[in-house]
Structure formats: C-alpha cells, structure tokens
Amino acid sequence: MKGLMMEYDLTIPAILRRAESLFADKSIVSRLPDRSLHRYTYADLGRRARSLAVALKDLGVQPGDRVATLAWNHHQHLEAYFGVPLLGAVVHTLNIRLSGEDLAYIVANAGDKVLLVDETLLPVIEKFRANVSLERIVVMSSTARPREGMLDYETLMASSDASRFEPREPKENDAAAMCYSSGTTGRPKGVLYSHRAIALHSMASAMADTLAISEGDVVLPVVPMFHVNAWGLPYTCALVGAAQVLPGPYLDGESLLDLFARERVTFTAGVPTIWFGILAALDKAPDRWALRPGMRMVVGGSAAPRSLIERFDKHGLRVLHAWGMTETTPLGSVAFVRSSLVGASEDEVYTVRAKQGLPVAFVEVRARGENGLVPHDGVAMGELEVRGPWVAGSYFSAPDDQGRFTDDGWFKTGDIVSIDPLGYIEIKDRSKDLIKSGGEWISSVALENALMGHPAVAEAAVIAVPHPKWQERPLAVVMLREGQKATEEELLEFLRPSVARFWVPDAVVFTDAIPRNATGKFLKSALRDRYREHVPTRI
Amino acid sequence: MKGLMMEYDLTIPAILRRAESLFADKSIVSRLPDRSLHRYTYADLGRRARSLAVALKDLGVQPGDRVATLAWNHHQHLEAYFGVPLLGAVVHTLNIRLSGEDLAYIVANAGDKVLLVDETLLPVIEKFRANVSLERIVVMSSTARPREGMLDYETLMASSDASRFEPREPKENDAAAMCYSSGTTGRPKGVLYSHRAIALHSMASAMADTLAISEGDVVLPVVPMFHVNAWGLPYTCALVGAAQVLPGPYLDGESLLDLFARERVTFTAGVPTIWFGILAALDKAPDRWALRPGMRMVVGGSAAPRSLIERFDKHGLRVLHAWGMTETTPLGSVAFVRSSLVGASEDEVYTVRAKQGLPVAFVEVRARGENGLVPHDGVAMGELEVRGPWVAGSYFSAPDDQGRFTDDGWFKTGDIVSIDPLGYIEIKDRSKDLIKSGGEWISSVALENALMGHPAVAEAAVIAVPHPKWQERPLAVVMLREGQKATEEELLEFLRPSVARFWVPDAVVFTDAIPRNATGKFLKSALRDRYREHVPTRI
Questions:
Q1: pLDDT digits over B156-207, tens only?
Q2: Is A514 buried (19+), middle (13-18) or exposed (0-12) by CB count in 10 A?
C-alpha cells in the first residue's frame, strides 16, 4: 500500500525558490581577479540564474544537455550552478588543473555542448580546444572584451531577460550536475548527480552532527567549485540561507585570512594543503587577523594529521574532519565527537577528531578485507564500501561498472579503512597505495601522519617498493621544512615507538617537492615510478 | 536524462539499521505505570522490533495491513513504531482521549486488523470494542496477566524470535504509519505517512535551524506518541542516535520535572498546556530541580503566548516555537532567530520567537486572503497553504479531498496567518474561529494571547458571537488564576492599548474551566454553542 503524501520533487529549483522567498537579501560576495569584491544577494542570484537559463536556451541548449564550466569560485560560476539545472540541463564543472589530454577526453566523453570559461583561464582551454567539438564558448569576466569565436557572458546576460524564463519542474531523479572523478587509476570517470542527490545532501550537510550549516553562517568554500560542487556547499547555503563568500583565484594563506576577517566568516572548507598555508601565515602573525572565534574549518579530500587539528585549536579555530568522494556528492562521514567521549582525555578526543568520522544519515558503510567484512574493532583493515541516496550507482558513458560496485550494489571506495567500536572510520590508505608486506597490510597514511608529526618534516609520502622477499616494503619520501634538518636515522627512530616493527620504512629519501595530482593529492604513482629501483637497505 | 545515483529508499528500516549499527548502546528509558523506570538500548529496541514483526506475521498480519496502538509513551509502543513498518505493515496510533464514537469510526475507517493496547487503557477500548471488528487485541504490560479474548504482548514476544525475521526492504513511498487528524470539523480524517515522508522529516528535524537534534541530546517527548508520531521525535532520535526518555502516563509538572532532572534531559516537546503546568511547579520551587541549563522545549500544537517564552527564559530554559499539523508529519515551521535580528531589542526578538516561525527546508508556504495571495507584510491575513515532501496529498479512504487541497495541489491548513517580511509565519486564528466583524477579520488568538498577558488571567478563549449589525463580534471567556481577581472592565482596559479599537471584545464572561478537545486545544465549538445567545453589551 502506498502512503498518501504529496508527490514533491527534491530539486535545485526548489532550493532556489526557498532562497529567493526567505533569504532574498542575504549576501553573496566574490573576490574578482582584480582583487576587488563583488557583492550581491540571493535575489540577484535568482534573477541572473533565470537570465542565464533563458540565454542558454536561446543558444540552443536543451534539457539534458551538458554545459561545462572552467572557472574559479565566484558569482557567475554560482549562477551556472543554478541556471543550468533550472533549464533542465546539466552543469559540468571541469577541473582547471587537469592536463589538456584529460580535459579533451572528459569534454568529449561528457558530450559538453557549451563551455563557460573564466577570462583568466583562457590559456587552459587552448590545451584542449582543438581536440573537442564545443558548440559555444562563453567567456566570464567583467570586461566584456570581444574575442574571436567566443561569446561574452555579461553581453549575453544583458540581452537576456529573466522574465522570459519558463519554469519547468524537473523530476528529482533527473540529472542536474556532473563531475569527473580525478582518475588516479585509469581514465577519469563521470559522476552524474541527480537533483535528489544534491537536495538530500544539502539537508544532510545542515544536520546538527554533520556540518550544521545554518542561516547565521557566513560560508567560504576554499574547496574549488570544480571539486564535487565545492562539496555541495553552494546548494546547502542556498537551502538554509547562509551567506556565501567566494574567494576567486586567491587561495594563498594571507588572501584567505584577509577575507575570513573582513567578511566575518564562520565556516570554511578545503583540503589539508590549504590549511597548512593558513597555519603558516597565522603562526607568523597570530594577532594580525580578527577571525570569528570558533570558526569551523572542514578538512577533507585527504586525511589531515592530528597535529593540524591541535595547532588550529591553539588559534581558537575548530577543524572538523570529514570524508567523501566525487562519487558520494561528496559528504560521507564527519568526525564529530560523540557524547560518550564527553569527559574523555584530550588525547582520546584528538584521536577521534583525526579520524574520518561517523557516516552521515542514510549513508551506510562496511569494510571488506581479504576474508570478508571486517569487525568494527578499530584494528582490522578493509576496503570501505558505501551505499546511500547520494552515492553514485554507475558512471556516465562508461563501458562497464569499472569494477567499482559490489554484486549487491555497494560502491567500492578504494579507501582502506578500519572502523572502531564507536563507528569512527579511519582511512589507512588508498587501496592502490596500501603496502602489502609479507601477507600483512601496512598503512602508508598512518606512516605519513606519524612522520609529519616530526617538527622538521613539512610533507611526507610513503610508497611501496618491490621487495624480493616481502613482495613490498615501505619507502618514505620526505620534504623537510625550510631551514630544518633531520637524518634518515633520526626519522626512523622517531617512528619506532608509534608503529609496529615491520611497518618501519626500509629507507627515507629526501626531496625538494612531492608531486601532487590535479586535486592536490600526492601523486604516488609518479613516486612509485621514480623509486621503483630503490634498493632496500634493511631487513 | 536521469542522474546516475543509487536507487536507495529512505525508509524506517534504514533508520533502524543506522541506530543499531552506530548507536546500539544508547539508552531508551521508559516510566512504567508503577512509576519505576525501564531501561534498555537501541540494540534491544532493534531486536524486539524484529521479534514483534515476526509475532505479528505469525498472527497473520500482512504488508499493508493496519496495526493500531492505544498507548502512552513507552518502549513497547516504540517497538511498534519500528516493528510494524519492518513487516511492511502500517502502525496506526489511536488518540486515547477521543470519544468511543470517534474511535469506533476511526478503527473501522482505517480497517485496523490488530490492536496493541496498554493494560491501563483497557477501559478505553470498552467504549468502542463492541462496534468494531478487530481480529486480535494484544495487551501491553509487564504483568502478562491472562485475559479473556486477548493476547499478552510479552508472552507473544517470548514465543517469537528476532532471528526468524526475514528482512524486506519497503519502497520509500510505501505506507508506514497512520494518524487521524483531530477533526474539529467533520469526521476525523486519516493521514497515511510514507516511509519517505518520515525519513525526510527526521532529517529536517535534525537540521541546525530547526530542532537541531543531535547524538548528544537526551530527548523526552511529552507530546504523546498518538499525536502525529510524537512529532516524529522517536524516528529523528533513532536516526541521529539521541537518547530517549518516554514518560509513560505521568505528564503532570512535577513528574516531568523529576524525569528531566534525573535523566539529564536536553530536549523536550509538547503543547502549551503541559508547559503551563511545568511553569507553575517551577515558579513554586525554582531550585528543586537541577535541570540541564539551556534545555530546549519545543512548543507546538497551538500557539504559545509570548509570556510563556519569557517566563521560561527566567529559569534558563529555552522555548522554541514550532508549527505543524497531523497533515504535515508534523514539522512545518520553527521560530529560530534569524541573523538579521542579532543586536535587535529584546522586545523584537521575543516578538519573533512568539511567532510560528520560518518554514523548514522544502516546505513551501503561502497565505490566501479573500482577494488572492496576501503580501508578506506581517499584517495581511490569509489562510496558510503548504506543500512539501511530508505534506499529505489526500486522506485515507475519504470520499473526496474534503475541500482541503487547492487546484494546484497545495494543502489548505485552515490556519489564518500573516507572514512578515522576514518570512515569519504568525497564526492569527483557525479559519473556523476567525471573527468576521463588519467585513474585517479579528484574530481570536491575538486577543487570547493579549488577555493571557494579564497577571490575573490563567486561560482565555475568544469566540465569535452573532451580531445583528456586524455579523459577528468577539466575546472573551476567561478563567482567572487561583486566588486572583479581575473585572470585565479591567480586562477590556488592559486590552485597549494593544489592539485595534474594533477588536476589543464586546464582553468578558468568567468561567471555572474552558473545555478542551482530545488534543488539548480549546473546544471553541462548545463555547460558541454555550454563548450563542450572549447579548452584546457594547457598540
């Protein structure tokens, strides 16, 4: 028997209606390439999103078509977040840091029809433009300078008219947005988000035990709008009426701190790399910026070392550790402190806050080891599998499921985790980065975090190198802090008290820079290639 | 084009899976009829819910069948909340305070197959048992005393076995629960909640700007589990892992305060009547109970006067005003304080907190007056219309839509409201209680709240009486506080500065008790009958 409730679709147009009717005068601030601040409101956003939908329709964009963006975080990009789905089309954010080859593949695989590109990012499209067949390229800037073979965004908007917009109500399972997973193995794979996934994810992100985003928040997503929809924050903010601050291309520590202070930011989010930059600036001049006390800083994208959380606490800023993937829209888990830990030692609480956290509502998790599902004992490691209403069920235009789904329909994350008795997930490794030594698993992430606890270490990556007896052994690649010194033996001594004996790397090599991929993660495949022949020095 | 996300149904079984996997050891405390406390955990709840599902299946209950309950708030009732939907059947909560005639109508209209009834409420079923055809009656108690023609709940559970449970995954639009609207006009009407509606409502109730229920909360629903699923709190708590405290039949101020203090309750919810009882006890002995500072108290069901909020603030307890209906699962709006009111005067903030609030995420509202939709100016009155994913789309087994739905599919609430420029809804009246005087509308609720601000007034109801010239005029029916005195002229003088001249009632009559309906609301129809012939003394 069916229930007798309304058929009400959870959609991006419904989110925008809410923002316009209740939060019309709340502000959206963008830093422009000339460093000036552009200010407008949700009322302006709604009107301009409709204008954009009209303009795109005039250009021939149909429901279901893909409209790509190549842009920083700013109001015009936000207009595409809402305007493209208003039309029933799909907003496809391209990662500006990918190679021309990858971008050409992605644009072709997605079948993008129109591209909206930042004026400052025009050099990026030259890397792939010749190899794709985009119908239109629209340049986003505030200058409206004419360019051969391209349209200008503001000129287009000026000749459009929001009042010509014909509302259409998408179904909640219709596609709304698209993002390609970074593809550290194989080709990038397209994730096609439904309206429903984004709407539910927005609700989940506002729940008290997740990110608790509220109307009173001023949210600055450092995470780029081309990384999983800026972790969904622009949609969550619109749903709850939070003010938004979009930092444009300026993501260095000082620029962000200036913006945090000036706009009274209460909530920000990004990958660990960003926070290291901010910590460095803060440590140098702790009193320079009047930040909102207790500003929440969500760290995701890769594991943050516990020392990062502790160091920000000293500045009165609250790091919240979260986990997610392109395939999970992305919020999967948040390391909030459970009530049973009230009164626990500082050490226990930090240990928990440095884990990836508890799964959010309606996201289910389990971990599978070589002998089936592993117990939640905080020790046994297995590959994290998830399911939920905002988890991808398949990839776009992919020949098969890429081996990423179980027979019973769970998504295989590729993350090797343990789950403790309280339910906290801890990422031990990416499955491809796991070191398999003599039939045992060694977590490269645990070794890296331990190494980064050494005062002389700026960054550390641990990789597997082939070994004749143990199949694989760990090798640490270390970048020291400027002006600091440490020897291989010192670092290995430093590790010994905190890890199992067989986990201690066979060698430490020092480097000036650890290569990163387009999303800022260590590019371990390059390191493995570089050090493949590294001769084990121990055991 | 469809998105490519998982098909994941939002269901009560999914909520229970989450509670069992993450919050197995969190506590559920029930006060039993002998005043002792029964304690167990979500792990126990899950196991017993499955046992109940098996037992009901053994009794012949099929998916889609209705299983009625007639019970206070306690753990066995909670087991029915989960166990019945686990089986794919519908848990139908009967209001213990309805007349035998109404209960007979409701049980027959719903087609209830099995009834679970509290031992202490057996006298209630005698009022209607002869007129309905229930297949089975199961008595919930801890005594297991055999009774002619009835089964015993604990005996049934002892012979059942959770391990025999065969999981079935309902679709999210399947029916899960049922509740009849109190029917102040016409027959009671059945609302049939889907799994989806309850699941989304649970997420919404945990959002930061609504009730913000979190894992750290200890939640005591004073609101009965037969009023709109205790406002959904048992499901919300299970989703987020909050501890639950169920007060059984003891709802007087002192009993509740004892339980608040003993169990360290952080969140409670109920109708204004309950809070008046608690205030009286607190005012009498302010230091007797060590309550959790900042305990949140949600007030709904009918409008609470501003004075209630102010008086609780003096005790360090935080009243949160909310609005909803049986037809809205029920959460529709919450009066959280918007950021634009930070720094506003105490008076402005209290004014806003005494309104019914802003619509929650994905609930859309509008108000329709005699000339169409009214502006959001805080003055114009209209009937509130709502739509959203947890709003009823039709009634169960009703011949037509009862005139309660607009042509474009919104639900007509019957509440007369104004909406201010910040979006706050304020209920001015039920449409049937509105006083229409000389072509103008007069809000009985506004007059009642103003009268209840007088120190001598305990309760006040204002009703329309027929008038030869003005069609209708307001009449105030007042119950004074024990030992207090006030004259008609004093009360009318008291009103004059705060209301329009033509709003001042034509007369005040004093009474020892104002009649209430089964949900604790003033029974104005009875008052209108009683005072129909009351001769206007003024104008």
A1: 999 999 999 999 889 999 999 999 987 555 788 999 999 999 999 999 999 9
A2: middle
CB contact under 8 A, B208 and A204: no
pLDDT tens-digit series, residues B325-335: 999 999 999 99
Under an 8 A CB cutoff, do A389 and B5 touch? yes
What residue spans of B226-370 are helical by DSSP H? 228-231, 233-240, 253-262, 272-284, 306-314, 346-353
What is the CA A52 to chain-centroid distance, rounded?
Answer: 26
A203 vs B contacts (CB less than 8 Å): 200, 203-204, 207, 361-362
Q: Is the pLDDT of residue B537 over 60?
A: no
How many Å lie between the alpha carbon of A127 and the closest alpha carbon of chain B? Answer: 29
Instruction: Indicate the pLDDT class of residue A313, thresholds 50, 70 and 90.
Output: very high
Contact B214, B233 (CB under 8 A): no
Contact B175 A2 (CB under 8 A): yes
**Subunit contact B14:A362, Cβ cutoff 8 A:** yes
pLDDT band at A474 (very low <50, low <70, confident <90, very high): very high
CA distance A242 to chain B (A): 9
- Give B229-278 pLDDT, tens digit per residue: 999 999 999 999 999 999 999 999 999 999 999 999 999 999 888 898 89
Three-state DSSP state, A423? coil
Rounded CA-CA distance B11/A362 in Å is: 9
CA B18 and chain centroid, separation: 26
Contact B3 A364 (CB under 8 A): no
Q: What is the dihedral of CA A189, A195, A201, A207, to 10 degrees?
A: 170
| Distance in Å, alpha carbon of B521 to nearest chain A alpha carbon | 25
CB A178 within 8 Å of CB A66? yes
The SS3 call for residue B276 is: helix
Structure ipTM over 0.85, yes or no: yes
Residue of A nearest to B63 (CA): A1
CB contact under 8 A, A6 and B392: yes
> Which among B64, B209, B409 has the least Cβ separation from residue A6?
B409
Rounded CA gap, A392 and A396, in Å?
10
Q: Nearest Cβ partner of B90 from A1, A239, A393?
A: A1
Report the alpha-carbon distance of residue A47 to residue B114 in Å, rounded: 55
CA atoms within 13 Å, Cβ hemisphere of A265: 27
Cβ atoms of B281 and B253 within 8 Å: the answer is yes
Residue A488, both tokens: 């291989």
Query: Of A193, A204, A209, which is closest to B215 when you measure between CB atoms?
Result: A209
Q: What is the pLDDT of residues A222-236, one digit of tens each?
A: 999 999 999 999 999
Query: What is the interface size between A and B, counted as CB pairs within 8 Å?
Result: 198
Contacts of B361 in chain A (CB under 8 A): 18, 202-203, 206, 239-240
Distance CA B458, CA B455 (A): 8
Separation CA B233–CA B238 (nearest Å): 8
Q: Is the pLDDT of residue B82 over 80?
A: yes
Nearest chain B CA: its distance from A444 CA (Å): 27
Tokens of A285: 């001049």
Chain B positions in Cβ-Cβ contact with residue A393 (cut-off 8 Å): 4-7
**HEC sequence for B241-271:** CCEEEECCCCCCHHHHHHHHHHCCCCEEEEC
Q: Model pTM greater than 0.80?
A: yes
Q: Decide if A3 and B409 are in contact by the 8 Å CB cutoff.
A: no
Q: Say which range, A368-382, A439-453, B125-139, has the weakest mean pLDDT.
A: A439-453
Quote the minimal CA–CA distance from A190 to chain B in Å: 10
Whether B94 and B103 have beta carbons less than 8 Å apart is answered as yes
